[in-house]
Design a protein that fits this description.
Largest sheet: 10 strands, antiparallel
Shape: globular
Number of strands: 46
Strand content: 25-35%
Radius of gyration: 27 Å
Distance between the termini: 67 Å
Number of helices: 10
Helix content: 10-25%
Length: about 800
């Protein structure tokens, strides 16, 4: 059992697990003492910690150990969640028991985020130093010293020059047990004296110190490992913190249940439970009759406050550490307070609470939409020689660059009181925040690490309302995806058609992201073994069709070879045909698809770009799909394109086409613009008084559309010079830096989320597009220009 010492008392970790949502807990000065002596071997370091990355860290034989995997040979961190440096106290002490290592360096990061990041943002600090990164004390016998470094400077160097250092004795042997101790004491209102010492067998063998600015000494504390290896892993036995500048936040403990996703449809409540990487889930005893598997059970709170099971125990699988619970004949007419309880898991595992609201039945439904949540902007060092006088780079560990946990999206989204939320793909990006091994066909641990970041980010949404997910290309480790019916790629990498990773990996991603969705129309699998999740269902009096377009889309080599172009595949088209012909159709119908069915994208000169990543191509297959959308009288809700827009598309059978709302990106990795030049407008240039992006157009593939609103990332004059693959996109002018752009505000001013308000009694649909509240320069906070847009539900059918 992992024990924690708090103010002198030894407390089981489970007692410290507080419910996370709906609570505001003030920080109190406190101490904490942590070790891993009683924990079983696993990657997850425990509820008080967040590891960067999951695959690099683990508990091995009662010690925390770092053995970096592919792409992890830099600053690896395990952040302490339950304690941090506050901004008011006068003294602190941090103690780390470790081993003298023959390779690399070990140490402590402190003041991560420097009070400018929230604790989840600061917990992402790893890899490289950068503005806002705090300070590091590290030691290594290879270089023979202990150092204090500024990890939060903008020097753009991998290993910052020491602010202070001291030599270690040459007699210190590899593997020797030592304690690294940091103390901080206020000198005056602006300054702290910080000392670092190395202790062996109770004797100080090296010490150094320096003065640090008080205003920067607030934020996260983390264990640090640099350039360890399988031959020489770095090991840590104990971490202790105390002093009046240490703030305690026990409610921040996280795990072993990381989150839930659920849906209510067709009389079923489906709950997908995501757990941490908790080690072995099958426990075999000498008497095999007593063997067991880690599992989870769903319980409902009763009016008297007690809890009763509503499901049997469901086993947790490996390597995804996921379980799917189904409750049949679920009564959705009243709300439920539920919790997931883990059995046969880590000792004192805390329950995970969430709420299921009553299904709306008053003719009104509020639909939320989020897509493309890249974790971080700049994630590598840059060359300062590229800067002109006065210029600087975006600060790496600043609010403008560290986007997860997306509070600027999740909090205002919840304030809009959605009844259901769709996350339409790219919940994660394979190369962000850390690199990938492109040859690994089953990168399960790397996926789990990045997927847990998403769960941690959107807890306050997923624990309040049904959230349905789609996978998109980056979720399955693709820059772009032309799935060709679920085949496996054989040549041409991602441009060759099919999936690059193994079918087992694709299914794992789909299971953890989409397993809780309403049951699939045709689950498959394909000949490659890849399953499907597309479906139709009704919720809150609205009909929904949740599509998979990427999986069935043709690749360019196939079309050039003469194959018939495909977009949705025969079975999915059959599903849509039946749905469109339903005589009991609801008054409002919404199709949720991964990406746009026209190509809204211009290059620097204002010409429309032939971007096949959109569903404007292949046109024959696109036309079949859009024609069905129109015949169904459906509204189209999409994401992926990183450019919010509302358009109306002609169909082959009607000029009164389908309305389409593409929601903005949550964290934009790849910018897109729509500032067409006059020659791109049908019937001449834009109408007087209107911006150039409004009007009628024909995209590069011949698809006609009319734009009603577009949220560009910046002004038109910036489009020509912006390059998605050039370091110049991270350079700030002095004027930008002085305005807080690149430190407080993001350069990209088009990120956010979408809202669709449906009112069937009054024949209304209102489209809203809101910016990220923490990133936008729109004050007071308000929607993007051009929104809200009001439509009549009766106008959605092309038959009217």
């Amino acid at each position: 059992m992992i024990q924690r010492t708090v103010n002198g008392y030894s407390i089981p970790v489970g007692v410290l697990l507080f419910l996370f949502f709906g609570w505001t807990v003030d920080a109190v000065a406190d101490s904490g003492d942590f070790d891993w002596q009683s924990a079983e071997d696993r990657h997850w370091p425990g509820p008080e910690f967040w590891a960067n990355r999951l695959q690099d860290w683990g508990i091995v034989d009662g010690q925390l150990q770092c053995e970096p995997q592919y792409g992890g040979n830099d600053w690896r961190t395990v952040h302490l969640l339950t304690h941090e440096l506050n901004d008011s106290g006068s003294q602190f002490t941090i103690e780390l028991q470790t081993e003298a290592t023959p390779e690399g360096r070990v140490g402590i990061l402190f003041a991560g985020g420097e009070g400018q990041l929230n604790y989840k943002q600061a917990s992402m600090i790893q890899g490289i130093p950068g503005l806002g990164g705090g300070f590091v004390v590290d030691m290594g016998i290879e270089e023979g010293n202990v150092c204090i470094r500024d990890f939060g400077s903008d020097a753009e160097v991998r290993i910052p020059k020491p602010l202070a250092s001291s030599a270690l004795p040459s007699t210190l042997a590899a593997g020797s047990k030592v304690e690294l101790k940091i103390t901080g004491e206020r000198i005056d209102a602006q300054t702290f004296r910080v000392k670092a010492s190395v202790v062996e067998d109770g004797e100080v063998i090296a010490k150094t110190g320096t003065r640090l600015p008080e205003e920067r000494l607030a934020g996260n504390i983390a264990v640090v490992s640099m350039q360890g290896s399988a031959r020489s892993p770095h090991r840590f036995r104990r971490l202790a913190v105390h002093g009046d500048r240490i703030a305690s936040h026990r409610e921040r403990a996280y795990g072993p249940i990381a989150g839930v996703l659920y849906s209510v449809a067709g009389g079923d409540l489906k709950v997908g439970v995501q757990c941490m990487s908790i080690g072995k889930t099958i426990h075999v005893e000498r008497d095999t009759k007593n063997s067991r598997r880690t599992g989870v059970r769903l319980e409902r709170q009763q009016p008297d406050g007690t809890w009763e099971p509503v499901s049997r125990v469901v086993g947790v699988s490996e390597p995804d550490y996921y379980a799917l619970i189904r409750v049949t004949d679920y009564d959705s007419s009243s709300p439920s307070s539920l919790r997931v309880v883990m059995v046969h898991g880590p000792e004192h595992a805390g329950a995970y609470r969430f709420d299921v609201p009553a299904e709306p039945d008053d003719g009104r439904l509020v639909v939320g939409g989020v897509s493309c949540t890249g974790d971080i902007g700049r994630k590598t060092l840059a060359n300062k020689k590229l800067l002109e006088p006065g210029e600087s780079f975006i600060g790496v560990w600043t609010p403008a660059n560290q986007w997860a946990p997306f509070d600027g999206i999740s909090e205002p989204l919840i304030e809009q009181e959605p009844d259901i939320v769709f996350f339409t793909g790219d919940q994660l990006y394979e190369w962000w925040p850390t690199p990938i091994d492109m040859t690994d066909a089953m990168p399960s641990e790397d996926y789990l690490y990045k997927w847990l970041i998403w769960h941690w980010s959107f807890q306050n949404v997923t624990s309040r309302v049904p959230c349905l997910l789609q996978t998109d290309d980056h979720d399955v480790w693709h820059p772009n995806l032309w799935g060709e019916g679920g085949r496996l790629m054989t040549e041409g990498w991602e441009k060759g058609g099919g999936y690059v990773k193994s079918a087992y990996f694709v299914n794992m991603v789909q299971r953890t992201m989409c397993g809780h969705n309403p049951d699939a129309y045709s689950p498959g699998p394909s000949d490659s073994g890849i399953t499907n999740y597309y479906c139709t269902f009704r919720y809150g009096g609205v009909d929904f069709a949740l599509l998979e377009d990427r999986k069935f889309k043709s690749s360019m080599p196939s079309v050039e070879a003469g194959a018939e172009p495909t977009m949705l595949g025969d079975a999915q088209l059959r599903m849509l045909s039946q749905w469109a012909a339903d005589e009991q159709a609801a008054a409002a119908r919404v199709i949720v698809s991964q990406t746009n069915y026209v190509t809204i994208n211009t290059i620097g000169n204002g010409k429309l770009l032939p971007d096949r990543d959109s569903n404007g191509w292949p046109k024959p297959a696109r036309d079949r799909a859009v024609d069905l959308f129109g015949k169904a009288g459906a509204f189209l809700f999409t994401g992926d394109q990183h450019l919010a827009s509302v358009t109306r598309m002609n169909t082959p059978s009607s000029k009164n086409g389908v309305y389409q709302f593409c929601q903005p990106a949550g964290g934009c990795i790849w910018w897109r613009w729509f500032y067409p030049n006059e020659n791109q407008h049908l019937g001449g240039g834009p109408k007087p008084g209107q911006p150039s992006y409004l009007g009628e157009f024909q995209d590069a593939f011949g698809n006609h559309f009319e734009t009603y609103a577009v949220a560009n990332p910046g002004p038109r004059e910036a489009m020509a010079s912006y390059k998605n693959t050039d370091i110049s996109r991270f350079i700030l002018t002095p004027e930008q830096r002085n305005a807080g752009i690149g430190t407080r505000y993001r350069i990209h001013q088009g990120e956010g989320f979408g809202i669709v308000r449906i009112d069937t009694k009054n024949d209304r649909m209102v489209l809203e597009c809101w910016p990220d509240r923490n990133a936008t320069m729109r004050h007071p906070y308000r929607q993007f220009d051009g929104w809200p847009i009001e439509l009549k539900l009766s106008d959605l059918s092309v038959n009217n």
